[in-house]
Design brief:
720 residues, alpha/beta, nine-stranded mixed β-sheet, Peptidase_S8_subtilisin-rel, hydrolase, Peptidase_S8/S53_dom_sf
């Protein structure tokens, strides 16, 4: 309380102008070492040089405020004194400077001076003292900040940025929970970001939020620790507001309605309850959570928004009650719950993702070059498959339509719903031995990517073989393989994944045919893969790969499926190898509506039917070292992975339905190229191009489970 009270005495502006100086308190993650500066706790703050009147506020003055560390009780507990652990950061210990008391009326002059230095203040005997000046630490633009709400409207935050920011805010709310810093409601409007201008590392940093502090004797009615308003569902405004911010950060967009004093009409309870309901609804909408659907994060959100979690620690005396002991006990209990149910899960998430040690090394937010919707990011081009040394850079044109990205996400969501329906229709669970095995031959897989840190995802990464460096460690130096592996896992949620690294990048695949051939044999013999996915191609036949394919089919009695990307080089170039091999299923690229893209190769005379599926603007996981957890990619290589995943879903469904001789025969036929193509024809949708079929099982979703099974049986009845 010392810092807040000492500053409040000086907030009456003496600049002979209306308004007051803007105040920003930097919210920092917990220090790695619990040290202080000469027994003091440090606060980093910014003050506007001029009083705010709705126009320019001059420059921001960097201020360091040191407050004496409060004495701890002998009984060690998680609830520490607010002044004991607040924003401490290790500092050198210079000789104690001369302390000069800041009298009333001098503070305005102090923060409006153009000295290009940091003003160093301390609190002594409850009064503010100046101890000198230091080099600037907070070098920021001389412009108003941007609120969290506007930041989410303009910028795209990666999963790492979201989790880091959520943790810092949750930790700060817990830290200041029963202090005067909470007199202003903490919302996506009062949490601000200020652009830094420190050389090459300038910009807005997601790990440096500021609280917009308003000094005054009256507490915001929506910022109290506990509310007794009749009719309210959730009686803890500070926790409720934190939960709302966590939702907004997680979905990457502010909620449609942010209540404030002017939104409150005759019924405060109605406004509060309405906003709580919105936050809960958004927290349960899976479509909105994209790259931040971590169970720990969602659990923290749920704990904040659930009205009963903190209600178990009321102990709140009525006005005029007997003493403050029940109040203090209840408050400390609620603060304990806040740490256990909200802060700790986010901390655990950061530890598991290995982001905890790099909280302050996140790159600044990129300046948007176009108007980006709340749930859109800019697409990047897909690295091309190998064709020849001079033409390795060709790639499909990048989509820039945000609608294409949204519809691609919706397409993937529909596939997940279909898989859930298929699994729910079967009473028996899937045994490990019955799970479909998919081998992906590509640039490898980064198992530290955020997607694989989900326990149900990481546990499905079965085996790894590196034909490039012979490393036993999972790795991907490019990202292409990681994207494809995670994409397949999204569409085929029960499949087991086996990854063979055959090249460092798609451009190196031209000289990697031996690796590919060895990987095919290994995937078939050692891994017993049901499906082998190859999202690459060569202009000419690679005889060693052909031999490996024929050998695998001979040994497995044709019961292994090969998928490959057709080409990204347009109708003037023929279909690539191994896609044109007569034992491989070739896949072309379509958009979300099933339109075949112009960069696909023309159907050859040897092809009875050309199959295509979604391959444009498809989101999936990327490297753990990248600033974004997901990337949008396009091309036939993406489409081939999607088709392989759909085939896995069909195999899994047939395996669950197998219960007699007839059903076993269906499952066996489906494991062959002829059988899978027959089912693809039955499920696919004709297009305007003759003998071009769009592969998407939407019409299969319309019938009952018996109708679905009958469709498979009918399609396979004509397969010998």
């Amino acid at each position: 309380m010392l810092a807040y009270n000492a500053l409040r005495e000086h907030m009456c502006c003496s600049c002979h102008c209306d308004g007051e100086h803007l105040t920003r308190l930097l919210l920092r993650p917990p220090p790695l070492q619990n040290t202080a500066h000469n027994g003091h706790v440090q606060f980093d703050m910014l003050f506007s040089a001029r009083a705010w009147k709705g126009a320019g506020s001059g420059h921001w003055q960097d201020v360091q405020l040191l407050v004496p560390r409060a004495k701890r009780s002998k009984k060690r507990a998680r609830i520490l004194s607010l002044e004991s652990n607040d924003d401490i950061q290790p500092l050198p210990s210079p000789p104690e400077p001369l302390s000069v008391r800041v009298d009333h009326g001098q503070f305005c002059k102090l923060i409006s001076s153009e000295t290009r230095s940091r003003v160093c203040l301390t609190v002594h005997d409850g009064k503010l003292h100046k101890t000198g000046f230091d080099h600037l630490r907070q070098i920021v633009q001389h412009a108003p900040g941007i609120s969290l709400a506007n930041l989410l409207r303009i910028h795209h935050l990666s999963a790492r940025m979201k989790v880091t920011l959520a943790y810092i805010l949750a930790q700060s709310v817990w830290q200041y929970y029963d202090s005067d810093w909470m007199k202003t409601a903490w919302t996506s409007e009062t949490i601000q970001f200020i652009e830094e201008c420190a050389g090459e590392q300038g910009g807005i940093f997601a790990f440096k939020p500021y609280l917009s502090v308003r000094f005054g004797d009256e507490e915001d009615p929506l910022a109290g620790e506990r509310s007794t308003i009749d009719g309210e569902i959730h009686h803890y405004p500070r926790v409720r507001a934190l939960g709302t911010m966590l939702v907004e950060i997680g979905i990457g967009s502010p909620l449609p309605m942010n209540y404030s004093a002017r939104t409150i009409s005759s019924s405060v309870a109605a406004a509060v309850n309405e906003h709580l309901l919105q936050a809960i609804q958004h927290s349960k909408n899976e479509r909105l959570w994209r790259d931040c659907d971590y169970p720990d994060y969602l659990a923290a959100v749920s704990s904040c928004l659930h009205p009963c979690i903190f209600g178990s620690a009321t102990s709140m005396p009525a006005v005029g009650g007997e003493g403050e002991e029940p109040f203090i006990h209840g408050l400390k209990r609620r603060r304990d719950i806040l740490y256990d149910k909200v802060v700790f899960p986010l901390e655990e998430l950061l530890q598991r993702t290995r982001w905890m040690d790099q909280l302050t090394s996140i790159s600044p937010l990129e300046t948007p070059t176009e108007s980006v919707p709340a749930h859109g990011v800019v697409a990047e081009q897909l690295p091309s498959p190998a064709k020849d040394a001079d033409d390795a850079g060709a790639a499909p044109p990048a989509q820039t339509d945000p609608e294409s990205k949204r519809k691609a996400r919706r397409w993937l969501l529909q596939m997940r719903r279909l898989n859930h329906e298929l699994a729910a229709a079967q009473a028996k669970p899937i045994s490990p031995a019955a799970r479909v095995r998919i081998a992906v031959l590509d640039t490898g897989c980064d198992d530290n990517a955020a997607f694989f840190l989900h326990s149900d995802h990481g546990s499905r990464l079965q085996e790894w073989k590196d034909w490039v460096d012979e490393s036993e460690q999972w790795q991907d130096q490019h990202g292409h393989g990681t994207h494809l592996v995670s994409l397949i896992m999204q569409i085929a949620p029960d499949a087991l994944m086996y990854v063979a690294r055959v090249a460092r990048s798609p451009d190196e695949l031209l000289g990697a045919s031996d690796n590919v051939a060895k990987a095919i044999s290994w995937a078939s013999k050692e891994w017993r893969a049901d499906i082998i996915s190859m999202s690459f191609g060569y202009a000419e036949e690679q005889r060693n790969i052909s031999r490996a394919i024929r050998g695998a089919l001979y040994e497995r009695d044709d019961a292994v499926l090969f998928f490959a990307a057709a080409s990204n080089y347009g109708a003037n170039e023929r279909e690539m190898f191994p896609a044109r091999h007569d034992s491989v299923i070739s896949i072309r690229c379509t958009n979300f509506d099933g339109d075949f893209e112009g960069f696909n190769p023309a159907r050859s005379q040897d092809e009875e039917t050309a199959f295509g599926t979604l391959g444009m603007d498809v989101p999936s996981s990327w490297l753990s070292t990248h600033h974004q957890a997901e990337e949008y990619k396009s091309g036939s290589s993406v489409a081939a992975a999607v088709a392989a995943a759909m085939a896995a879903g069909l195999l899994g469904y047939a395996g669950l339905r197998s219960g007699g001789c007839a059903s076993l025969n269906v499952a066996e036929k489906l494991r062959t190229r002829k059988g899978m193509l027959a089912v693809f024809r039955a499920l696919a949708t004709p297009t305007l191009k003759e003998r071009y079929l769009y592969l998407a099982p939407w019409k299969w979703m319309e019938g009952s489970d018996e109708v679905r099974w009958a469709t498979l049986v009918a399609a396979l009845s004509r397969v010998c």
